[in-house]
Amino acid sequence: MSHQVAIAQRMQQIKPSPTLAVNAKAKALKAAGADILNFSVGEPDFDTPAHVRQAAKEAIDQGFTRYTAVPGIPELREAICQRLRSDHGWRYEPDQIQVCCGGKHGLYNMAQALFGPGDEVIVPTPYWVSYPPIVELAGATPVYLQLREESGFDIEAQALAQCVSPRTRGIIVNSPSNPTGAIFSESGLRLVAEYARKQGWVVISDDIYDTIVYQEGVLPHILRVAPDLQDQTIVLNGVSKSFAMTGWRIGYCAGPKPVIAAMNKIQSQSTSNPCSISQKAALAAVSGPQDFPVMMKESFAKRLEVILAHLRDLPGVSCVRPQGAFYVFPNVSAYFGKRLGDKTIAGSVDLADYLLDEALIASVPGAAFGADDFIRFSFATSLEIINQGMGRLKTALAKLA
Ligand SMILES: *Cc1c(COP(=O)(O)O)cnc(C)c1O
Q: CA 68 from chain center: how many Å?
């Protein structure tokens, strides 16, 4: 007689990534022949630049195919230090850097190294889908800091105060944000810095979209409003978004030595090191010419204007102008309670399903980001698809009554 193997208790609260799930459903429909326009993808639609691909080919041909140092090859960590210094003026030593298998993996290592049962971690909401489960997998509890559409999804004093407890260990700030595209203001970040200083919080700054910014001037950052907090801050970045390298799986973390050392222990016992070939490719990206991210940003900026104009033309829809990243996050709650035939739209999940079935456009329901009034469209796709898809959206919404 065989037994059904028991699944760990821990897994009961963990859900698979909803954005990847929507993407999978859209891909399956497309494979079955449906004319799906996909606005659910969270990655640039550009190819990795040629000089980066070339570096990877050379790495293979030169036999750079063995285990590397656990925190990443020294020349890549050195190049990351130089990048952080020349772009931002921050000083890090190579032993303050961990290269990991994508930014998401860096966050995972961080949470495992820093948090445990009884700890609370503040997660500004709408949040990136992976923050809560990554915190929960460490045994800690996410505490949701509500950001309001009316204030451009910025951090506000009263809402932040409501999240603080003696158990608060830290906060995750993601600016520009996925899914809202918002950039936290200096005053919002100063509120965070004050608590961090008083209560010893760790600030995790997810800067993965920091090359995709549509506003002029210096990007507000926790280390710019509070340079004194460098020993309490961990910066997360990577090449997935900036160099269109999502499949290569390279991210990096910069932080205090003891935290990076603890993260290295976890990495040594799990993945050993990030892919050797991808590290060489990332080295070419980080240390080579930086015109590729600028070119991508300019292209996204044009698409943003087009998709925003479409959305703002829709009756009942409001949409905060994204200041960075490549997502729009319109409020679609005016359509909740409406119906077509026997289909009633109760919330964002129903609406995203309706749009996939009725308009053949794939989006991600706001519920996946802890904000059910909204829906996320990625505009990392062609102007042609944006125009066609938004036309379909308008028609589908108009059918609801
Ligand atoms: C894409 C993304 C990351 C990193 O993704 P990887 O593919 O794991 O490098 C991190 N944070 C946010 C908010 C993202 O959208």
A: 27
Atom in ligand 1 nearest the alpha carbon of residue 246:
7
Give distance in angstroms: CA of 208 to centre of ligand 1.
6
Residues with CB under 6 A from ligand 1: 42, 102-104, 128, 174, 178, 206, 208, 238, 240-241, 246, 251
**173, 206, 245, 376, best to mutate for ligand 1 pocket (most atoms within 8 Å of CB):** 206
Confidence band of 395 (pLDDT split at 50, 70, 90): very high
CA 103 / ligand 1 centre spacing (Å): 5
Share of the chain above pLDDT 70, in %: 99
Q: Return the ligand 1 atom nearest residue 177 CA.
A: 13
| 3.90.550.10, 3.90.1150.10, 3.20.20.70, 3.90.1010.10: CATH of 9-47+292-398 | 3.90.1150.10
H helix and E strand count, the chain = 13, 14
Beta strands, E only, 8-54: 37-38
For residue 307 the two structure tokens come to 């998709």
What's the pLDDT score for residue 102? 98
Break the chain into its structural domains and give their ranges: 9-47+292-398, 66-288
CATH number of 66-288: 3.40.640.10
For residue 234, which of 259, 209, 214, 251 has the smallest C-alpha distance? 259
Is the pTM here over 0.85, yes or no? yes
Cα angle: 324, vertex 327, 328; to 5 degrees:
105
Residue 104 has pLDDT above 70, yes or no: yes
How remote is the CA of residue 145 from the centroid of ligand 1, in Å? 20
Q: Give per-residue pLDDT as tens, 255-314.
A: 999 999 999 999 999 999 999 999 999 999 999 999 999 999 999 999 999 999 999 999
Q: Tell me what pLDDT residue 19 has.
A: 67
